[in-house]
Amino acid sequence: MGVITVLITAFQEAGTIGRALDAFLRQIPPDAEILVVCPDGETTAVIRQYAARHPQIRHVPDPGKGKPAALNIGLQAAQGEIIVFSDGDVYVGEDALAALLAPFADGQTGAVTGQPVSLSPRDTKLGYWSRLLVGAAHQTRLARDEAGEFLLCSGYLFAIRKHLLTAKRGETARGKEITRAESSPRRP
Hints:
Elements: E1 4-9, H1 17-25, E2 33-38, H2 41-53, E3 57-61, H3 67-77, E4 82-87, H4 96-101, E5 111-113, H5 125-146, E6 157-161, H6 162-166, E7 169-173, E8 176-179
Parallel strand pairs: 1-2, 1-4, 2-3
Antiparallel strand pairs: 4-6, 5-6, 7-8
C-alpha cells in the first residue's frame, strides 16, 4: 500500500488537537507521518509538544491564508503515497484508520471517505440538532452520490492516493494554480 501521510489542518484548536493526534497515533503504521498545518501560536505550541515526543509528527507552518492554502501546503510537504485528510477537532474512532485504508489494498481504489458521526449527547438541544444535522447531511450526500451529482467525501476523514491530486493541474483561484482530482467513471 505504501507510506501513509495523515494531513491535519488546524486553526485555533489548541483544546482539541491533542485528542485528535492521540487518536491517530494509536492507529498509524510505524512508517506513517502526521503533518499538522497550523497558523496560530497556541495550537502550534501543542503540536510542537507532541512532535518532541513523537518523531512521526511534524508541524508545517501555515501563513494563515485559509484552509485550501493549508491543504496545498500540507500536500506539498507530504511524503506518503496515500494522504489521509482530517481536522484538528476531529476524533477518529478506534480502528477507523484501518477501515479507511483497507480498500486501498486492491491497488485499484483511488479514494475512500469516512462517515461523520456527532459525539454530542442526544439529551441536550445542541446534541439533538447536531446528531440530526450530521445524519441528514450524510444521507443527502449518499443520495447525491448515487445520482452521480456529488462526489461523496468528508473533510473530517478522507483518504486519496497522492498521485491523483498531483498528476493533473486544474483551474486557478486568485491567479494561483490549484490541483484537482479526477474522479473515476460513474457506475451505470
